[in-house]
């Protein structure tokens, strides 16, 4: 795993899981939607570490491990592969590489999404910890990415604090990070 120094860049992995987009048959809209939302949310300097991969569990697992263990990403956000289709295996890959799951993330994202669309109950996104990194699965639709990321982001900076990662600050006009008072 990695050690974070105070002058090390904040690195955030952005993973699009899509067979068609990875083959160039379809434009990746999920990864850019995550990046745009994070640019709005974060007020601290950070660096995106993007990946566009096929919906193959071993590849997803290897990519998540690489971003957490070798690329030193304190946060890895995925999009795609969270539905009920046979090839949707992002949650399985995430669970396989995590030390701990954080069930509240998926529960809250589905609750927020259900206010918009009744098929949100089909979504299987999860979140978990790998070493000192937080991995969060988001749906594939750009508007759902934004809704879900805005919903869970208040808890993300404190989670990263608890993992002894970098201090994430937010644009409070967009999202106010919650940190319990000492």
Please name the defining characteristics of this protein.
globular; Molybdenum Cofactor Biosythetic Enzyme, Chain A; alpha/beta; 6 strands; about 180 residues; disordered N terminus; about 35% helix
What does this entry look like structurally?
The protein has 182 residues and is of the alpha/beta class. It is globular, with a radius of gyration of 15 Å. Residues 1-6 have low confidence and may be disordered. Strands 2-1-3-6-5-4 form a six-stranded mixed beta sheet, with helices on both faces. Strand 5 (127-130) and strand 6 (133-138) form a beta hairpin. It has helices at 19-22, 30-41, 57-70, 90-97, 103-114, 142-152, 156-162; strands at 11-17, 47-53, 75-79, 100-101, 127-130, 133-138. It starts with 10 loop residues before the first strand and ends in a 20-residue tail after the last helix. The chain has a single domain (11-162), classed as MoaB/Mog-like domain (Molybdenum Cofactor Biosythetic Enzyme, Chain A, 3-Layer(aba) Sandwich).
Quick overview of this protein structure:
This protein is an alpha/beta fold and 182 residues long. The protein has seven helices and six strands; from the N terminus they run βααβαβαβαββαα.
Here the CATH topology equals Molybdenum Cofactor Biosythetic Enzyme, Chain A
> From the 3D coordinates, which CATH architecture would you assign?
3-Layer(aba) Sandwich
Look at the structure and give the mean pLDDT. Answer: 94
Shape: globular
Number of alpha- plus pi-helical segments: 7
Q: Estimate what percentage of residues fall within beta strands.
A: 15-25%
CATH class: Alpha Beta
Task: Write the H/E string, N to C.
Answer: EHHEHEHEHEEHH
Q: In percent, how helical is the residue content?
A: 25-40%
Describe the sheet with the most strands: 6 strands, mixed
Radius of gyration: 15 Å
Strand order of the largest sheet: 2-1-3-6-5-4
Give the CATH H-level superfamily: MoaB/Mog-like domain
Class inferred from helices and paired strands: alpha/beta
**N→C terminal distance:** 28 Å
Structural domain count? 1
Annotation, overall tally of beta strands: 6
The parts where pLDDT drops under 50 for at least 5 residues are: 1-6
């Amino acid at each position: 795993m990695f050690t974070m120094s105070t002058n090390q860049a904040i690195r955030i992995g952005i993973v699009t899981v899509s067979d068609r987009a990875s083959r160039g048959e379809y434009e990746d809209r999920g990864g850019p939607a995550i990046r745009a939302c994070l640019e709005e949310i974060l007020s601290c300097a950070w660096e995106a570490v993007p990946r566009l991969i096929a919906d193959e569990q071993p590849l997803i697992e290897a990519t998540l491990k690489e971003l957490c263990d070798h690329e030193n990403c304190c946060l890895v956000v995925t999009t795609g592969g969270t539905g009920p289709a046979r090839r949707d295996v992002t949650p399985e890959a995430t669970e396989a590489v995590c030390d701990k799951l954080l069930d509240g993330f998926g529960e809250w994202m589905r609750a927020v999404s259900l206010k918009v669309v009744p098929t949100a109950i089909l979504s299987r996104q999860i979140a978990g910890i790998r070493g000192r990194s937080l991995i969060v699965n988001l749906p594939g639709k750009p508007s759902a990415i934004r809704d879900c990321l805005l919903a869970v982001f208040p808890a993300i900076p404190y989670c990263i604090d608890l993992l002894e990662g970098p201090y994430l600050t937010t644009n409070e006009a967009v999202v106010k990070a919650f940190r319990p008072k000492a």
